[in-house]
What we know:
The structure is a single chain. With about 170 residues, the protein is mainly alpha-helical. It is built from 7 helices and no strands. It folds into 2 domains: about 60 residues; about 90 residues, no CATH class. It is elongated and about 80 Å long. About 5% of the residues have low confidence.
Amino acid sequence: MPNKEIDKKIVKELKTDSNQATTDKPNFEQEQTTEKSAEKLTSGIEKELSAEKHQSSFKISQLLKTKKTVIPSSRDEMTERIEKILADGLNDPYQRLSPIARQEFKLKGEQIAIQIRQLLKKTHIKLKKILKLILDWLRLLPGLNRFFLEQEAKIKAEKILELKEK
């Protein structure tokens, strides 16, 4: 959008400069005036664009700083138990992941553990939501059978529900 506005300004100023030049000065002077006004406009436009780029890069850096997911460093005992249940039996597939994928899988698992903990705090526990969270998380592991993932998710969800009952 800013580029369209700048283009309109250029065209508008060039028209006004050329109209003034045709009425007042001979043809050779018209060209010089038009070139000078065009140079002034382009230098002004370049300054505006650089200022806009600086502002947009500043805004992007601010967004990147604020979008980070915060995971509390100290977790309660229930969240740690949930994490242990989620991690149980996944050592082999986890070891096959690349280091970056491992980090993503781990962070996603921690986020899911916190979400499950919040669901368990409610009086009416929806096992289907817990099951969906676990299943979506397990799908990050490549090369595992869909039925195996569903079975693992059900087992983990039942174990987590047993934690709540204790």
